[in-house]
Design a protein that fits this description.
This is PEP-CTERM sorting domain-containing protein. Keywords: Signal. It comes from Agarivorans aestuarii. InterPro entries: Ice-binding_C. By secondary structure, the protein is of the alpha+beta class. It has 2 domains: 43 residues; 152 residues, Jelly Rolls (Sandwich), CATH 2.60.120. The chain is built from 2 helices and 16 strands. A 6-stranded antiparallel β-sheet has the order 7-6-9-3-13-14, with no helix packed on it. Strands 1, 4, 5, 8 and 16 form a 5-stranded antiparallel β-sheet that branches. A hairpin with a 2-residue loop joins β11 and β12. The longest helix has 20 residues. It is globular. The termini are close together.
Amino acid sequence: MLNRFLSFFAASILLLSSAFVSTASAGVIVEPTPTGGGCCGFGERGYWFETLEDMTFESIWLSNSSGVSQNYDLQILQFSAAPPEFGASTTDFTQLGLFENQSSKIDLNLNIAAGTILGFLAYDNDLNETPYSQDSTHTIGANDISFTRLIRQTLNNNDAVSSEASTSDIGAIGFEYSLGQAPATVPEPSSLAIFALALLGLGARRVKK
């Protein structure tokens, strides 16, 4: 009987300790600095890259020279192959997110596996253009990643896109990420604590019997 109580006690203590351990990790910010220029009234600009590690995107936004754009549209695309160079184009993409008329950073919980080709396109509705950045290389995890300019020659979210590797002007789209896949939803700490206390009480009741 004592051994059984000790087992209940050990399990309860383990649950109580896990209830107060935080699983959150600080994200890393990638923010291409706006140059002050931009393009174009008729189309959208951004960039694409291939992820080399599992990542969770926590937030994303478009910046201009004053900070986060106050009225912008942003689209997240996944490609099955690298977008072709301008002169050719592709509609072979999957839309992972479409956000319109945004005025602040967009909260995400987007799990992306290593080897995924991602594209971001955005448009500032107040400036009637996509603000540019020339920060096209960033360190993500243990790797230096090059962002390649991505363009759409219309403002229609379903239209074809192209790549332009010949220029370093990319859309000034920033994001926050953490490495690895986001964990599955776990019970709230308060729920774990209540369950652990109930388990401890059950063990004590059995010992009294």
